[in-house]
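User: Some background: our group keeps a shared notebook of sequences we're curious about, and every so often someone picks one and asks for a predicted structure to add to the entry. Today it's my turn. The entry only has the sequence so far, pasted here. Could you supply the structure so I can complete it?
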Amino acid sequence: MRIAQALARLVIVAAFGVAAAALAQTEQQPGGLTPPGGSAPLGGPVYLNPPPPGPGIPRDDILEVMVRAALMSFNDANLTGNYAVLNARLHSEFRQQVPADRLATIFAGFRTNKIDIAPLLAHRSTYTQSPSIDANGILSAKGHMETRPWRTSFELEWRREENQWRLWKINVRVRPPEQ
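Assistant: Of course. Here's the predicted structure to add to the notebook entry:
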């Protein structure tokens, strides 16, 4: 019985020790989270996520994914003639004003000319204006992808709905670079 009690005490003391060590690691130091002794925790330093570039503007990597997802949904809709998925990505107000069949009419030129912008995935977006959020809460990204021989330009906007960014505007142009 004494061995069991001693073992239980030892487990409790060890648990408190682990909890205290974890609590000590949460103290923020410049360059990352480190324990009070100044040595890096096992496995190396732990760094916090960088702060977002502006109020509400997603980090660069997240914005790049948002741009690519919008453009690839647009491209898939044009290649298949099925605009349901692109329509589902739209903000509900936009979706009500522009149903899937209307999207098919608007982007018919891409379909009839068999324009496939999928190869743009190999290129990073170059923004012609810094991404920003206007007074109405609209996140705007304008730029292009250096595709050759023609340039693929985009103007995309998102608006918050149910705690996520939903596509509010999509304008894509594929033209020679001088136009």
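Suggested note for the entry: The helical segments are 2-25, 60-80, 84-89, 92-97, 100-106, 108-112. DSSP finds six helices and six strands in the chain.
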